[in-house]
Structure formats: structure tokens, C-alpha cells
Amino acid sequence: MNKRNIKYYTLPAAIIILLIILLTNEDLANKIIPSLGRLHPLVLHLPIGALILTFFLYVLSRLKGEYPKNIITIALGFSSFFSILACIFGYILSLEGGYTEQTLDIHLWVGILTAVLITLLFAVSTSKSKRPSVLFLPLFIVTICAISVAGHYGSVLTHGSDFLTEFMESPEIEKPITNIDSLKLYDNVVHKIFDNKCIECHNTTKKKGGLSLVSKHNLLLGGDSGMAIEKHNAHESLLFELCTLPITDDNHMPPEGKPQLTKKELWLIKYWINTSDDRDDKVASLPKNDTLNNYLKDYLIIDEILIKEASEEAITAVIAKGFTIRKLTPKNGGLWITYKNKKLPDDGINSLIQLKDQIVELDLGNTDLSDDMTNALKNMQNLVTLKLNKTNITDLTLNNLTGLKQLKTIVIHHTSISNEGIKNLLTNISPDQIYAWKTNIDHTDLQLLKNEYATHINLGTSKTK
After folding, report:
1. 307 lies in a domain?
2. Alpha carbon distance 398, 396 (integer Å)
């Protein structure tokens, strides 16, 4: 190596010397070195981007017959330095644990091989020849392959073994479960919660805290801190304790910035721990209450409803009554229907019965609708959104909605609805949202409804759920 090129190695050498100093000072090392490991995800992308750009410039220069030696050398020097730095920081990060040893070893050693190959490319590029060595291109291709393999195993460590192929595989078709009693509390409910919120960091390749949540068996094995759950005692279970810590606590799980467990999910995990045993019994054999029944409705597996097209005659007849109709999607027969005038037709909404299977969204707000006109609503089993705001309805109308299992959004503000009507409705169905300000619902009883039912009831004040 000539003196002119020593400058390329000065900064890397200085970094290595600094790390050696840190390693010999225990107090300083305990504060700074772990933080350096956390920089690994940031630093590793620098040599990847630089190397790919350099390869592109090199191939382009060969096609044009012009070799930009200085640019290639500087870019490879940059890549070499940061690849070495990424290896050092990655090794420090690996000391935190929580990774599958075999996958970690492959990632580590292929990463080191990549740094060596990039450094070798840099050394070859500094030769005095104005033309690149005949070995330069084959060596470059091998380096690109190595960094690709290292990157793949890095993604496996971070996101799991199926990260690359997740969307290539045909999704597993779940068998319909239309009855709450047929649900298995762990397989169909608790495991789904873990899968959505926890398994990214607690799987077979990345076990933070030594804990894997990929199966009930793994969960019961516990982690580095001991058993994760204490059967029949959620409040003494480490898993539940960490999930219920304040989000600002360093030990809170999932960590701040990750999707958090909802109040409903925490309740279900607590219930499962308090009733758990070595089997995964169906809900039918477990003690039940209204809260459990309401929360479990979200975990039923219902086949997608394919709505057949309405006849042109039926649509024309309803439009003739003054209703406005629009298809929701081109490939499905679902309809959105509204009425723009204050006074409804003489037969009220009875003409809509001929479209009862197609109505998905119905807006009758700001009309003279009254209880004696709403009997037709009972037949609209595919109804998802219903707007009855600023009408003359009372709790009697809500009685006509108790069989509409698909109903998710109900708008009934500025009506005479009361607590009893809402409670009777929520005992039978579980909509997601009810908008009910300016009604007879007592604000002081709202907290009772909030504790008993999962539905979000909006009363238009700070006291709403």
C-alpha cells in the first residue's frame, strides 16, 4: 500500500482505537457501548446503498468505455468503512440476546465476509492501473451476493423467517366460526392478539427476553425472567403485569411506538389467564358473562357476504318513491340509499322491503320518520350503517334493530332514545359506533354502559367513551 492511500485507513483505524479505549474503561463502556449497538440498523444501510450505486456506476462506465477511477475508489472506501462499522455495532447489538443462535451466526459471519470483500474491492481499486483488474467484476458480483444474503438473514432476525415469502404463499383459509360457544379461547382469540401485537419480537428467531409466543407451549415455557403466566392469577403473571404498566415505563409491553393492546384485548388476556388450564377448551365450557360475549363477537369468522344484484324493476320502483340509490361496489349488489326530503312517502319506508337483501347503508336522517314506520328495518339483515338522526323515533325503533347482526354504525342523535333502549339494543347486538348526542341518554349512566359493553357511544361531550 503506498503512502498516498494511507489516508483512506486513518478514520477506520481511529474508530477502532476509540472502541478499544471504551472496552478498557468499564464504567464508560457500560454507558456508551450498548447505545452504539442500537445504531446498527442505521449504519448498515449506508454501505448497502453506496455499494449498489458504485456497482451501477462501474457497469455503466464499462458500457461507455470510461472508468471513473477516483469516484469508484472513494465510494468503495466509504462502503468499506461503514461495513466494518456495521459489523462492530451489530456484534454489540447481538450481545443483548433474544435472537436464535443459528440465524444470528449466519448473519454475523456473512456480514463480516461482506465487509472483507468490500475492503478487498477498495484495495483493488486503489491500484495504479487506469483500468480495473479482470477480477474486479467477478469479485464485485460475489460481494453483492454476500451483502444480499446478510441482509436477508438480518430481516429474518428482525421480522421472522417468513418475512420475504409472507405474501407469496396462499393465505390459510380459516373455517367459519359463527357461534361464540364454538370459539377456542386460546387458539381463536388470545393467540390472534399475540400474533397482531407481540409475535414480531417474540418468535422462534427473535425471542426478546427469551420468550416466544408462537404457541401456547412456548408461552408456558416462559423466558429469561421465569414463567410468563401464573395460571388462574393474572395479576401475579409477569406477562400481564408488563402489559399493564404505564406506557412511559421502560418495561411496558409492547414498547412505546409499537401497536398497543386495547382495553378489550387486555381484558380477554386477563380472562384467559384466570381460567386457563392445560387444555384449550371451547368457550361453551367456560364461565361466561355479557362482557365476554360482547368481546368475543369480534373473533367470529364469518364468510364474506356476497349480495346478489337487485332487479331493475325493484330499484326503479324505489326511486319513483323519491329515494336516491347508489351501488357501493361494482362487483357486489350492496346499495346505499337515502331520502332527501323531510316528508317520507305515504307508505313510509315499506317500499324498501323489496331491496331488503341489498341495503347496506341507509340514511333516513332529517325526515319525519316515526316508530310506526320502522317495522321494515327488521328485514334488512345486511344493513351495516343506519342513520336516523333528527327523526321522531324512540326506544321502540331500537327494538326493531335487535336482530341486525351486521349493523356496525348507528346515528341517532337529536332523537328521543333513552338508556333503556340503548341497553336493550346492546344486549342483542354489538355495533362499533353509536352517535347519540342530544338524546335522553343520561350522561351519568354512560360510564356503566362503557364498562358493560364494547360499543363506542358518542354523546358529543368529554364524558363520552
Report:
1. no
2. 5
End-to-end CA distance of the chain: 72
What is the number of other CB atoms lying within 10 angstroms of the CB of residue 146? 19
Question: What pTM did the predictor assign?
Answer: 0.49
In this structure, the answer to whether residues 293 and 219 fall within a common structural domain is: yes
> What DSSP state is assigned to residue 385?
E
Helix (H), strand (E) at residue 338: strand 335-339
174 assigned to some structural domain: no
Same domain, 367 and 319: yes
Query: Using alpha carbons only, what angle is made at residue 52 by residues 127 and 54, rounded to the nearest 5 degrees?
Result: 35
Residues 291, 333, single domain; the answer is: no
Look at strands 323-327 and 335-339 and give their pairing: antiparallel
Domain end marker among 275, 299, 323? 299
Q: Are 189 and 295 in contact (CB under 8 A)?
A: no
The rounded distance, in Å, linking the Cα atoms of 9 and 442 is 75
Q: What is the CA radius of gyration of the chain?
A: 32
415 phi, psi to nearest 5 deg: -135, -175
Burial string for 189-206 (b: 16+ CB within 10 Å, else e) reads bbbebbeebbbbbbbebb
Domain tally, the chain? 3
- CA 404 – CA 160 distance, rounded (Å): 41
Residues 49, 184: one domain? no
Contact assessment for residue 198 and residue 213, using Cβ atoms and an 8 Å cutoff: yes
Q: Is residue 68 part of a domain?
A: yes
| CB contact at 8 A, 223 and 211 | yes
Tell me the per-residue pLDDT of 44-91, one tens digit each, with 9 for 90 and over.
899 999 999 999 988 888 788 777 888 888 999 999 989 998 998 888
The whole domain housing 194 covers 180-299
Asked if 57 and 67 touch (Cβ cutoff 8 Å), the reply is no
pLDDT tens readout for residues 334-389: 999 999 899 999 888 999 999 999 999 999 999 999 999 999 999 999 999 999 99
